[in-house]
């Protein structure tokens, strides 16, 4: 028996038994207004970015007044099986809708299809699927453009020429792969005197892994590398720490993607020369709002872009950059 058939069988059993289900779509308020339960499933739950997505999702629920957000995801962004288990659990619980940030652009497709077969619509956010035919909408940063902004910022910080390193994240993560390819494409197109001396190394999914791998690659190219780009927050923190401990502050220019407190501080002490920023609060908000529009029969755009920006030492104290560098958290 395939996992897909087994899951559908569980759904049939759950419906047939008529068990107690507090997430049922039939819940109403005393005034007769229908209550909706929307599951929001991030890639992970430990990084600052996801806490801000959670805040945005809850803001939408609070504004709507008749929505309960169920927030649950794996602890680590390497746990694809854990995320699959969460999706399956919410399907069995018959939530009204699922907002999902897939850890793998291929591995989650089957489970999104099962959700649709069960009558549960899915909005994808943050990171895309290779097959979006059974999804309502994709709410995310334009990650390719984010990678281009990183390339422009890093190239300008090294004076338009020199050697740089791209430190990748993990295979199957559509959002970071788009950043990586956008970064390489922009350098090739606009900065012929910038040479990418390494673009095939992966940092890993935790700051500790990223620190070890960044240390290794920076030591390998010591005296040759002028700049480095790390494509997400945990990678960025590992790279920042490696630069600091190797005595390369100011010597190797560094651009990251997504902020945390040490990276923000790095903008002020010559450790960090740019941070590409998303709007995670808006992303969580728009994901839940898009789901509710769909559930109420309204038309929803297939692609919703939430914006991308760059904080630098020069602009970091502006009102807009402060809002994005230190977004609301749940």
UniProtKB/TrEMBL annotation:
The keyword DNA repair does not apply. The keyword Acetylation does not apply. PANTHER family: D-ALLOSE-BINDING PERIPLASMIC PROTEIN-RELATED. CDD domains: PBP1_ABC_sugar_binding-like. GO terms for molecular function: carbohydrate binding. Keywords: Signal. Belongs to the bacterial solute-binding protein 2 family. It comes from Symmachiella dynata. This is D-ribose-binding periplasmic protein.
